[in-house]
Amino acid sequence: MGVVEQREFPRIKPPKSVLVAWQSGVQRDVSYVESLGLGGLFLRTKKKVAIRSLVKLLLDLPVGQVRGRGMVRWYRENGIAVQFIGMDPEDRSRLVRQIRELTPAGA
Fold first, then answer.
1. Can you give the chain as a three-state secondary structure string?
2. What is the CATH number of the domain that holds 77?
3. What is the pLDDT of residues 95-104, one digit of tens each?
4. Cα four-point dihedral sign 58, 46, 36, 51
5. How many independent structural domains does the chain possess?
6. Which of 13, 21, 56, 97 is 20 to 30 A away from residue 45, measured at CA?
7. pTM for this one?
8. Straight-line distance from the first to the last Cα atom of the chain, in angstroms, rounded to the nearest whole number
9. Mean per-residue pLDDT for 3-16?
């Protein structure tokens, strides 16, 4: 038996060049995005960020920049999973467009 997927939205693997600048409290970093979806992302970082911490995000995507706010849902030694909790409509539209462009046909 496999692990049951609990995400509301599927995740995609973006191009390796996709970066996110983020800030949580006094911590700031620029990280690579490991996976991306309409509900959130997993970013690679060695920094420790507490679960339920608020995070400001600035994604640098091929379709343009996407700003948003998120909350840390879990972490591993190589990164943190962030759920999106706020995003302006224009940013959300760019995110949706980017995910559609990167989603394989028929998925």
1. CCCCCCCCCCCECCCCCCEEEEEECCEEEEEEEEEECCCEEEEECCCCCCCCCEEEEEEEECCEEEEEEEEEEEEECCEEEEEEEECCHHHHHHHHHHHHHHCCCCC
2. 2.40.10.220
3. 999 999 988 7
4. negative
5. 1
6. 97
7. 0.87
8. 22
9. 70
